[in-house]
């Protein structure tokens, strides 16, 4: 089941298009209905989102290079306010927050950049990119006509909820940015009423049917959702290469000229940057580049071929005149002509029926839910449903630098929980209030906030008795409960945003009884109207003691207006246990299944250049650090439901991706994430020891933890006659075996290919000769290459290959 009930990735609003030239000189960016123009020259913009804080600075050159090789000419990113100004007036542009270095890296590849300046950003990013201190400024009302709050972004979908003030504010924003005269166009996503000259643009899985609100605007697709994000307790979403290519080809068929993949590289929500709440640490997004920066094949390669075809037609697509003819049954032909040149698209949006289209005297078979592109309105050069790119099967490989991969030696320390002392006192209190506070008041410097109170009970008190319960209602996150110095229970919100009530029987004592609530957030909300005002923590409560009376009537004492004391964060966080070497850690009696424990171990970095991951199986919930860098939160015990995945190995790409395409999900019935990215930039080189520290909140066993690398072990293809196939291994690996190779009639899929009745008998020998011992190899797929197949004319000739890399 799809779990995010909140609207998908919402919205957008103002975004500046900032184009960097190859030289240091700026260029002028203008537009009309057909395209953007850079210094007067029409351009197709094929862009992809890569968010700089979701990778490390040393990964940027490779990611951007792979994006360029993948056929993009532009990289898009948000600007993340809360990473740059975590505390009021304290700025940070170091490490992976160095946006200028990121933009320079883009320029070094001779690519353009689109900058979405925010300040609000949706992006499954903590609190929509707003620093929490902003919310706590006196008199502020966010995202509306309010003097303290300034500028806006991604507003279209939520504006209505702000009434007239919302509209006034929208116009104020538009005027503000226009008055800056910076020489580049401004755009607002999903803002159908954007005021001139701010271009409204579309976000979605498909944007072919969306049109700008002014005939003089180009058609821009700012967020083409290349996949989807993961949340704790959910399975892994998958969007097929065929469907994504279909959406892109349709968009360019129907007047599109600027398109951006959201995401091209999703990356990782390091530290506590994930929003949601309950957005997972991996932000892989099933994007063309995977979380670690590997090619996600066949998506990357299939789209690359499409981009090459589109770019080869740039002149006609950006200048030409379009004429579309409806063939019925959702089949649409579009002819685009310019100065005697011609490009044609045959689109079949029927989700189940292949189409035979007669076009200029030729018959074309256009598979269901696909687009065929004809280079000169005659030769088919691409069909979105025919994937010629390799399918890579990623596998983890054990750490060759460790002699005993499962023999990590652990030491540990218990978290020093803050409970009342004998006299009822607590240390480190930052606030006393006669109310239950929303956790946001603490400015989000830690996931954890303590709430303390105490109750005096006398013999005559109506709640004094044996059958007394403590009930606490919390919102959005995790709660641990302590009574009279003892842990009595935990509970958490199901999806992250819902309320939950924890009820536990307690043993009252005469005199003082102490109550401690330890509330933990798992990312703050990042979307929907007034998301910044949603309750977090034990806020409204109530917190009450209830005794069940003799006649089963309940006697209740509401503690919500008691005096409450507040303390932020864990003791281990304050002592920086994730990055210090002076304190004592224990090596004996390693505890397992114990709450609130810190674990530490050392390991050697795996050799080579393949991405490094750590397997956190066996643990509960918490946060992990390597050499002081946070890898993010982990949550191994929140299991996704069994029934959200398809039974079959392949998922049908046909039909609208959203909603019913839940069948494409993977990894149901297990933890949402098993492998956590350890960027090589966090590791010490050579033979030096690296340190892994875990804070385990729920209880688990670290003995299963191990480090691995992620690489391509199997490369498969099922490519079409007339196409071109390139097979590659990753890093330093080469092809060492060919398990299957046949050109002719072939069926099945990777790992399960079968020969049909006819085919070229030399295929295996030719593939072996070409590929074995090489990092990559390529073929023109035809009888010229593999020899005669003796297949009848009505058989689709395909090359099926399964190769092994090592
Ligand atoms: C949170 O930030 C606000 C605004 O900067 C500040 O006034 C307030 O004192 C901070 N609260 C805490 C608990 O640090
Ligand atoms: C009394 O409280 C108990 C424990 O919360 C609850 O299960 C029960 O429904 C309550 N009874 C009444 C009559 O409200
Ligand atoms: C594929 O064919 C093209 C032209 O037909 C040729 O230039 C190219 O070298 C061939 N590639 C391979 C790998 O055979
Ligand atoms: C999920 C979503 O927002 N889909 C949208 C994608 O774009 C099309 C066309 O603009 C909309 O109709 C969909 O609602």
TrEMBL record:
Listed EC numbers: 3.2.1.23
Membrane spanning stretches: none
Pfam families: BetaGal_gal-bd, GHD, Glyco_hydro_35, SUEL_Lectin
Any one of the GO CC terms: apoplast
Signal peptide: 1-26
Keywords on record: Apoplast, Glycosidase, Hydrolase, Signal
Predominant subcellular localization, coarse grouping: secreted
InterPro entries recorded: BetaGal_gal-bd, Galactose-bd-like_sf, GH, GHD, Gly_Hdrlase_35_cat, Glycoside_Hdrlase_35, Lectin_gal-bd_dom, Lectin_gal-bd_sf
A GO term for molecular function: beta-galactosidase activity
GO biological process per UniProt: carbohydrate metabolic process
Domain SUEL-type lectin per the UniProt entry, residue ranges: 719-806
Family: Belongs to the glycosyl hydrolase 35 family.
Protein name (database record): beta-galactosidase
Species of provenance: Rubroshorea leprosula
């Amino acid at each position: 089941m799809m779990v995010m009930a909140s609207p998908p990735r919402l919205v957008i609003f103002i975004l500046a298009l900032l184009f960097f030239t190859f030289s240091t000189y700026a260029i002028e960016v203008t537009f009309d209905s057909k395209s953007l123009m850079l210094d007067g020259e029409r351009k197709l913009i094929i862009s992809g989102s890569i968010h700089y804080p979701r990778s490390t600075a040393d990964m940027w050159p490779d990611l951007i290079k792979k994006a360029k090789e993948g056929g993009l000419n532009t990289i898009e990113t948000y600007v993340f306010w809360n990473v740059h100004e975590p505390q009021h007036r304290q700025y940070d542009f170091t490490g992976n927050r160095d946006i200028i270095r990121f933009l320079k890296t883009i320029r070094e590849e001779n690519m353009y950049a689109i900058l979405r300046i925010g300040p609000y950003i949706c992006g499954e990013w903590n609190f929509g990119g707003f620093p929490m201190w902003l919310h706590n400024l006196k008199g502020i009302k966010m995202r509306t006509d309010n003097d303290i709050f300034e500028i806006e972004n991604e507003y279209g979908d939520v504006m209505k909820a702000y009434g007239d003030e919302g509209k006034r504010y929208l116009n104020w924003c538009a005027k503000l940015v226009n008055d800056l005269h910076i020489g580049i166009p401004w755009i607002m996503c999903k803002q159908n009423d954007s005021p001139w000259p701010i271009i409204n643009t579309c976000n979605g899985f498909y944007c072919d049917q969306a049109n700008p609100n002014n005939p003089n605007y180009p058609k821009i697709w700012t967020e083409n959702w290349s996949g989807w994000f993961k949340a704790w307790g959910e399975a892994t979403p998958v969007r097929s290469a065929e469907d994504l290519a279909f959406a892109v080809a349709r968009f360019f068929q129907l007047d599109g000229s600027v398109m951006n993949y959201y995401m091209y590289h999703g990356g990782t929500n390091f530290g506590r940057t994930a929003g949601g709440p309950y957005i997972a640490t991996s932000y892989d997004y099933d994007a063309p580049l995977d979380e670690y920066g590997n090619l996600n094949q066949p998506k990357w390669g299939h789209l690359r071929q499409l981009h090459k075809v589109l770019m080869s037609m740039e002149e006609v697509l950006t200048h030409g005149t379009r004429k579309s003819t409806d063939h019925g049954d959702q089949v649409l032909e579009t002819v685009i002509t310019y100065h005697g040149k011609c490009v044609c698209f045959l689109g079949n949006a029927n989700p189940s029926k292949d189409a035979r289209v007669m076009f200029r005297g030729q018959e074309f078979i256009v598979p269901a839910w696909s687009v065929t592109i004809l280079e000169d309105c005659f030769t088919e050069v691409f069909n979105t449903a025919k994937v010629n790119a390799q399918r890579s099967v990623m596998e983890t490989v054990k750490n060759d630098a460790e002699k005993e991969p499962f023999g990590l030696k652990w030491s540990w320390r218990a978290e020093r929980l803050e409970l009342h002392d004998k006299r009822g006192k607590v240390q480190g209190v930052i606030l006393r209030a006669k109310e239950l506070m929303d956790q946001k008041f603490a400015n989000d410097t830690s996931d954890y906030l303590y709430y303390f109170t105490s109750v005096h009970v006398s013999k005559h008190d109506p709640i004094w008795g044996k059958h007394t319960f403590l009930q606490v209602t919390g919102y959005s996150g995790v709660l641990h409960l302590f009574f009279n110095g003892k842990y009595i229970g935990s509970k958490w919100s199901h999806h992250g945003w819902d309320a939950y009530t924890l009820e536990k029987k307690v043993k009252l004592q005469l005199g003082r009884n102490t109550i401690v609530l330890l509330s933990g957030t798992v990312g703050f909300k990042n979307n929907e109207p007034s998301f910044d005002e949603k309750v977090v923590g034990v806020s409204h409560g109530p917190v009450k003691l209830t005794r069940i009376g003799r006649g089963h009537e309940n006697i209740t004492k509401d503690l919500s207006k008691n005096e409450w004391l507040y303390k932020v964060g864990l003791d281990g966080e304050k002592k920086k246990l994730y990055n210090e070497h002076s304190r004592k850690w224990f090596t004996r009696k390693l505890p397992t299944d114990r709450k609130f424990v810190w674990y530490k171990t050392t390991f050697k970095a795996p050799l080579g250049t393949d991405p490094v991951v750590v397997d956190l199986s066996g643990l509960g919930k918490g946060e992990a650090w390597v050499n002081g860098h946070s890898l993010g939160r982990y949550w191994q015990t929140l299991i996704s439901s069994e029934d959200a995945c398809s039974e079959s190995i392949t998922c049908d790409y046909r039909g609208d991706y959203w909603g019913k395409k839940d069948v494409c999900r993977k990894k149901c019935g297990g933890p949402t994430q098993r492998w956590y990215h350890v960027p090589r930039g966090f590791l010490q080189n050579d033979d030096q020891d690296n340190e892994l520290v875990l804070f385990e909140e729920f209880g688990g066993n670290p003995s299963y933890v191990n480090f691995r690398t992620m690489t391509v072990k199997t490369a498969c293809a099922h490519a079409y006659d007339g196409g071109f196939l390139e097979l590659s291994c990753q890093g330093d690996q080469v092809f060492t075996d060919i398990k299957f190779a046949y050109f002719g009639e072939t069926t099945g899929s990777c790992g399960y290919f079968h020969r049909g009745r006819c085919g070229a008998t030399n295929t295996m020998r030719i593939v072996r000769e070409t590929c074995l011992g090489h990092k990559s190899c390529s073929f023109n797929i035809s009888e010229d290459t593999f020899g005669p197949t003796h297949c009848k004319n009505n058989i689709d000739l395909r090359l099926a290959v399964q190769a092994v890399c090592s």
